[in-house]
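Many introductory courses stop at the sequence. We go one step further.
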Amino acid sequence: RIPRRARIRSDAASMSSKALKRRLREAAGDDDCDGIDAALHLARDFEGTLNSRDFVGATALHWAARRGRARAVGHLLRLGAKVCLSDAQQSPLLVLAECGSEDAYAIVPALVAAAPWQLVHTDSMGNTPLDRARYCGNKRMVSALKEAHGAAGEGFDAPPPKKRGYFARLFFGHPQLEDDAEFSLLSPGLGEPVGA
């Protein structure tokens, strides 16, 4: 019987760049740190492969977070994976908040330490990670996000009002503001209002 690590390396040696990137994302989603290392070892462009995106813009970090894979998230962050947004404006913390894994809440501190702006960033529907965790009914995740937000020095009790679109109101029950009062959009990279 050939050991798993040797099988991965022999399979990956004949793979194209596109296949290696896919293998990396699959290994991240399966919490397979050896598979991550094997795919990156054979890649010609380490950083490009590490931060490669699938057809919806999700990186290996998104794949690992979506499935609640603590070892893979930690390993990818140690390797230098960039925390970025998918095409649907979802951060890894946001997809983690939707995760149904029992231990997903334990990943929150690592993702927040890597990029604190994820706590206040909203997706294309206007939801923060806390909104998504509440919607999914994950009480442990809600507690972990509140704790992380408290440690960052900002409160959850009075978030700035957001204008919601028709579909957000329809599916998530968010009321649209009656007046046309100005509101600030958050810059995903800085966590500060745009134009301030």
